[in-house]
Amino acid sequence: MKNGSDKTISVEKRALLISKILREKGFETEIIRYPKEKRSLDILVKDLSLVKVAEDTKDLNHKGFRDLLAISASTKASPLMISEKIEDEHIESGIIFEKNGVRVVNLETFIAYLNGEKISIYEWRGSFYIKIDHKKLREMREKARMSLGDLAERLGVSRKSVYEYERDLMDPDIDHGERLIDLFGEEIVGSIDLLSKTEYEIDRMKLIKRLAKISSAEDKIVNKINREGLSAVRLYRTAPDIVGVFEEESFMIVIDDHRKAVEERIQKINEAMKFSK
Known about the structure:
Structural class: alpha+beta
Low-confidence stretches: 1-8
Radius of gyration: 21 Å
Number of helices: 10
Number of strands: 12
Mean pLDDT: 92
Helix content: 40-55%
Order of helices and strands: HEEEHEEEEHEEHHHHHHEEEH
């Protein structure tokens, strides 16, 4: 990792900048401003993604990441974090990292993506991989009259690995990806759509049920809801207080806290309405 974008830009200004650029590119966005500090996400991209903006991934604690994952899974959106650091380490541009199940890129990488540049390298569990255009790989291999076995031998991998590359079931690591590029050229390099909810591969119902089980042990209200056959998750740093799924349909609950000022209670409800829209 190395230096990313200008760290003098505040998180709030960065969120406004990102939202502005997204709108200029034709995306519909909403800025989230509740709660004022340490919120779990900052930007809603309509029908696509939930975005958290931070200086460092450590600025979002475990429950914050859980909020982001729970809302994403229940609304069928993809979670994305735009941060300049991962645990004090500057994020290298042009690479997608992962933290607690959420994809992380720096601002420079995100802007490059929005400008149509290919973002192809990603980190997963400590290793780096290259996204391959699986259809182009098969086309180029067949054009070169190479069998799966021939290509596997040239790469130094198993025949099964090549089979999975061509069916988009697996991507090669950096070393084997570079060998593929040497053989067939840059044409076979694919691109990762950071805002695509279809590319963010996750079993949403499995995730929601796992998080619901954790929440049931923590929260009496959630426990009662889940005992009725729903899958609900308690949120901690987001306008809605509870999110969940019932028969594939998502729902959100706001709990009115009479101890808070009227203005804050109204703001909380208005911010929660942005999610439902």
